[in-house]
Amino acid sequence: MALTLEDARNIISAAEAKATEIGQPMNIAVVDVGGNVISHVRMDGAWLGGIDISINKAFTSRAFDIQTKDLAENSQPNQQFYGIAASNNGRIMIFAGGIPLIRDGEVVGAIGVSGGSGNQDQDVAEAGVKAL
């Protein structure tokens, strides 16, 4: 079951609401099952550098069907994915804020959030996931 633009808008809306609640403007991206951007929003005042990061967090999460915070834990020296950040032409993000989107037990895309601390990015991404 494909992720639609309407789904992406609902996910982004919920994530924006959380970002507003915590007082941190964010970049929020939603990608489809192929890792392609469906929608992105840069909230007023969100970092310009976070645009690319949010998109790549979503891509990373979909590419490996893993939360980026979990990939981060496994990509440290002496861990199984050490060096993974250098793959995929540098698109791999290994910090919190990317989460696969799952519908009926199947990954249909991912959300990526950037603009705050890792915990803030993760909280906003989780709010978006709940909207699916």
Automatic annotation (TrEMBL):
Pfam families tied to this protein: HbpS-like (PF03928)
Domain of life of the organism encoding this protein: Bacteria
InterPro entries xref list: GlcG_carb_metab_protein (IPR052517), PduO/GlcC-like (IPR005624), PduO/GlcC-like_sf (IPR038084)
Protein name, per record: Heme-binding protein
Protein's organism: Arthrobacter sunyaminii
Origin organism lineage: Bacteria, Bacillati, Actinomycetota, Actinomycetes, Micrococcales
